[in-house]
Amino acid sequence: MGRRIPVVMETEQNYTPLEVAIYQLDKKTRQLAEEIEVVESTSAPNVQSLSMQLNGVIDAAVMGGVKKYEEAFFDGSYMAEFPEQKRLRPAFQRVLANQIPVLKKGMEFYEKYASETQAPHVEHLNAMLEKIGVKLLFVS
Q1: pLDDT the model gives residue 14
Q2: What does the alpha-carbon distance between residue 81 and residue 79 come to, in Å, rounded to a whole number?
């Protein structure tokens, strides 16, 4: 039979959609960096997990990627409704910019260890990554 411990204090924390987006982007970048470290430290790496993670970020057809963030937060309506959120714009841009070198490093390892049958997927992701880099230049 387990002991019960009384709740001493309870707090509630509310986050805005933009704060959640920043947190999720940063978290995904850290997860991807960890997966890259696993691949990097293995003598005969399996890049299946890395491939899926890269695909989920770079070719985000379901989530829409950078374009969806632009539409959601930077088309003018969100910032008009929540002007205090403008202070988060640099943080958002920073997490997006920080993701690019991690994605590039991940692609280097995926390309290095991918099988011949994965070559078209590697090419596709490299092309999509290039587009993301260009889009980031215009997120301001």
Answers
A1: 92
A2: 5
